[in-house]
Write a structure and sequence with these properties.
The structure is a single chain. The protein has 495 residues and is α/β, with parallel strands linked by helices. It is 34% helix and 19% strand. It contains 15 helices and 23 strands. It has helices at residues 14-29, 58-75, 86-91, 93-98, 114-124, 169-173, 181-193, 218-226, 247-255, 272-278, 284-297, 316-329, 356-379, 398-401, 454-464; strands at residues 5-10, 33-34, 46-51, 80-85, 104-106, 128-130, 145-146, 151-155, 157-158, 177-178, 198-202, 234-238, 262-264, 302-309, 333-338, 385-390, 403-407, 413-417, 428-432, 435-436, 441-443, 449-451, 472-473. The strands form 6 sheets. The protein has a 7-stranded mixed beta sheet. Helix 8 (218-226) runs parallel beside helix 9 and helix 12 (316-329) packs parallel to helix 13 (356-379). The longest helix has 24 residues, at 356-379. The radius of gyration is 23 Å and the shape is globular.
């Protein structure tokens, strides 16, 4: 009898992407096999939805997808559907009431229960809804099927202690809980021994790390400790909060060679009035001051941000303050969002909701300005020689253009001419930038250097294995790590 197949569909932020790696690992540890690529919708034996509650119409998207699976499930006895993540944590029993063909509903705190709940639902022939109110086990203790052999997420904390009025994440993910530094570094060392050369430290409010441990400099110490791990070439982190962005973190970034010159720091609004209404604990002057310090310490740093347009009560003057910060900060790129009500958040009940047409007009002005700045900043890269880590699946047109793609140290996307000698994802090439577009760089000349790496060896080894063995399985008891993955669809990364 062949093993049952599974499919995990992920919505939302990097935390959800990483949680899906855990869900895949749990299922494979329980004997399931990932459905082959190209499997028709509804043909997997188990379909898991890892949901987001932050994006607009998240519930409509979920129920639309569930509705399409209902007739398929009727035709395939034994097929199971599970719903987890933030929307499951929020809606709980509502999901089974609206979609009674769902077999399992689980929350953000008990993802480790998925295989047990699936088996219980099969035996009892009824839906299993189990939502924990607090974290049952730190996710890093769970088996993991990592999507990349050469780059990995490493979760350093879960939850968030902030109370932003537009965000429901703290209510769904809980208060911040930090991992012990030794556990984090042990996971990183294990990953490096497996061939990983790039890690991204991950947390809902990543630079608040240490508040649960009683050490305000714990995050900067962690960055420096990562710098001492032999074989670890690139360290990134996401997403920090301006409130907790201290001088010791800037110094650690600048002084630790393998911490990349890249920073994603959410602005949300440039208006002090709106920031106060959002319950963001910084103001425009503080934010621009951080940018200035980062640029002084790391002149080549690429800084990106998140911005919400049309928050309740936002005036034209408030919006112009946001435009002012964008002009001053000169972000490499920005993830821009039109405000939409999130049920369960204070902002959803605020007076002064902005008409849709006003929000749309402001949004278009902001996007046009940021596009202009992004292109201008990218043009400064023309003529520079960069070391690019070859990526997997980053260049959608690579086949037609005979190019490969990868990431520069500052995380800019670079498309480059395919060199004569073989290169693999995880290897590093040296190229000269010849052209800049708003969202990518081109290196159209010959590659001037290729460095084969242990990360490339790891990718080659993984892809040579049988399909059902693919992935990097780490089930670390008591300890707890991205290739460039699909961009998150917003959500929890907005802090």
């Amino acid at each position: 009898m062949s093993a049952k197949t599974y499919e995990v569909r992920t919505y939302g932020c990097q935390m959800n992407v990483h949680d899906s790696e855990r869900l895949s690992g749990l299922l494979e540890d329980a004997g399931y096999v990932r459905a082959p690529e190209g499997t028709a919708e509804g043909d997997a034996d188990v379909v898991v939805f890892n949901t987001c509650a932050v994006r607009e119409n998240a519930d409509n998207k979920l129920y639309g997808n569930l509705g399409r699976l209902a007739p398929m499930k009727t035709k395939r006895p034994g097929m199971q559907i599970a719903v987890g993540g933030c929307l499951a944590q929020k809606d709980r029993d509502t999901i089974v009431k609206r979609a009674p063909w769902v077999d399992v509903v689980f929350g953000t705190h008990n993802i480790g229960k998925l295989p047990v709940l699936l088996e219980r639902a099969r035996i009892q022939e009824e839906a299993q809804v189990e939502i924990a109110e607090s974290l049952e086990a730190f996710p890093s203790t769970l088996p993991t099927r990592r999507e990349s052999a050469y780059a990995a997420w490493v979760s350093i904390s879960v939850g968030c202690n902030n109370t932003c009025t537009f965000c429901i994440v703290p209510a769904l993910r809980g208060k911040e809980e930090d991992r012990r530094p030794g556990d984090i570094l042990a996971e990183v060392e294990t990953l490096v021994s497996e061939g990983v050369s790039e890690i991204t430290l991950l947390g809902q409010n990543v630079n608040a790390y240490g508040s649960d441990l009683g050490d305000r400099e714990a995050f900067s110490k962690l960055l420096r400790a990562c710098g001492a791990i032999e074989g670890l070439e690139r360290v990134r982190f996401t997403s920090p909060h301006p409130r907790d962005f201290t001088d010791d973190v800037i110094a650690a970034m600048a002084e630790t060679p393998n911490v990349m010159p890249q920073l994603h720091m959410p602005l949300q609004s440039g208006s002090d009035t709106v920031l106060k209404a959002m319950r963001r604990s910084y103001r425009q002057e503080r934010f621009l001051g951080i940018i200035e310090k980062v640029r002084a310490a790391m002149p080549d740093a690429a800084i990106s941000t998140d911005i919400i347009v049309g928050f309740p009560g936002e005036t034209e003057e408030d919006f112009e303050q946001t435009m002012h910060v964008v002009r001053e900060a000169r972000f490499a790129n920005a993830f821009t969002f039109q405000y939409s009500k999130r049920p369960g958040t204070p902002a959803a009940e605020m007076e002064g909701q902005i008409p849709k047409e006003v929000v749309q007009a402001r949004y278009e002005r902001l996007v046009a300005l940021q596009e202009e700045i992004s292109w201008s900043e990218n043009k400064k890269q023309v003529g520079r020689t960069l070391e690019v880590m070859v990526a997997e699946g980053e260049g959608r047109k690579d086949g037609a253009t005979h190019r490969l793609s990868g990431r520069a140290p500052d995380n800019r996307l670079v498309h480059f001419t395919k060199p004569e000698q073989p290169v693999r994802p995880g290897d590093v090439v040296t190229v000269e930038i010849t052209y800049a577009a708003p969202h990518h760089l081109l290196a159209e000349g010959p590659t001037t250097g290729v460095r084969r790496t242990r990360a490339g060896d790891a990718w080659e080894k993984r892809t040579a294995a049988p399909a059902e063995k693919a992935g990097v399985m780490l089930g670390l008891p008591g300890i707890g790590a991205p290739a460039p993955l699909p961009a998150p669809t917003g959500g929890c990364s907005i802090v």
